[in-house]
Fold HTH araC/xylS-type domain-containing protein.
Amino acid sequence: MKHEIIEQFPLSNGIEVHEFLYQKDDIVSPHSSLWGDFNFSLNGTLEFDIEGKYYLSPPSYGLWLPPRTEHQSLPVAHEIHYICIRLHPRYGDFLGDTCRCFSIEPFFRALVVQILAQQKQNASPEYLEHLRQVLFDQLKQAPAYSHYLPQSTHPILAPILAQLADPELFNLSLQQILLNVSVSERHLLRLSQHELQLSLSEWRNRAKIIFAINQIRQGMTIKQLAYVLGYHHSSSFIEFFKRYTGQTPIQLKNASI
């Protein structure tokens, strides 16, 4: 029955694609919407306070905000091209009733850019409807996570995650930390994929990014931070940071001054 209702409710009335340009130090006040919002960045990282919880929105991950979810962004480091896909409640049910992260593939990004361009050119309603349908189909199959840094209470995995997120152990390799774990590497891989939908190396990289952002905001130098995170050269850390956030540590630091 729900499928039939959706079919009778055209996508043109249920999905809107908007773009925003955030300037340095811009802050969006707390707000919510009657529609759901699927948000992601084209060129930088936004930090959100969503109902009192901290979320990251880097270029490769979108944030789903269900209807009536109060949220606000924190000050940005540089101009960010941000996308908001608004979904009528009839279409957003499948994304869930809690805030979640979704992987953004290059095709999805290119599709959104194409839709924005066609909207500006007043393309035919039929063509835009087709593009929205493809966008909707892509959203339905995008990998989802409970958080940018998902957690687990599994008795084997939980203590491992605690070590991987411990700043005092960031200078150790993943292999060194797992050296005394009693289960096989293959079992750990299956466990992390089942519990986190991420590899342990990817999870640890995200833990490092969140730690790095917090330390930069508190005034730690780039050189000090690179050392804490186990990098012998600041340039390697800068490359790592930019790959995950779309900006350099200096750009983030300047936004915090």
Notes: Residues 200-217 form the longest helix (18 residues). Strands lie at 15-22, 28-31, 36-41, 46-50, 53-57, 61-65, 71-73, 80-87, 100-103, 144-145. Residues 5 and 90 are 8 Å apart (CA to CA).
